[in-house]
Amino acid sequence: MLIDTSTLLRTLQPSHPQRETARVAIKALTARGRDLHIVPQNLVELWVVATRPVAKNGLGLSTAEAADELMRLKSMFPLLPDTPAIHPVWESLVIQYRVSGKPAHGARLVAAMHVHGLSTILTFDRTGFSRYAGIEVLHPAAAT
Length: 144
Known about the structure:
- The protein has one domain: Rossmann fold (3-Layer(aba) Sandwich), CATH 3.40.50.
- Helix content is 49%, strand content 6%.
- It has helices at 5-10, 19-31, 40-51, 63-76, 86-96, 103-116, and strands spanning 2-3, 120-122, 136-138.
- It has a three-stranded parallel sheet.
- It is globular, with a radius of gyration of 15 Å.
- The relative contact order is 0.19.
């Protein structure tokens, strides 16, 4: 199972209303023996939001704080590698599903999932990933 960046970000936001839902879901899935994974794109997306100023919809973390979070996540979840096989799968997905704009980032996560044999994503985004055949969207609230 891949953890979406939105779910990872909620765990870093103490005052966010979805924080506990994300944390409980991750603990529950891990306790049930589910393998939770991340990919390099998760870390890039997390870095962008974590280091962006709060006034611009970011978390306002320093680069040192963001680096600590990356290390924490890599110690908690296996980091699946970027491989050359991901790009052609991504390209096929964005063409097949006529993806434009920001959702192309999600298509890349789906491409990485296909390449690494994952079929489920833990995400708060119920609609963004449901368009892709063969991908199960698991909302953190449903994981407990």
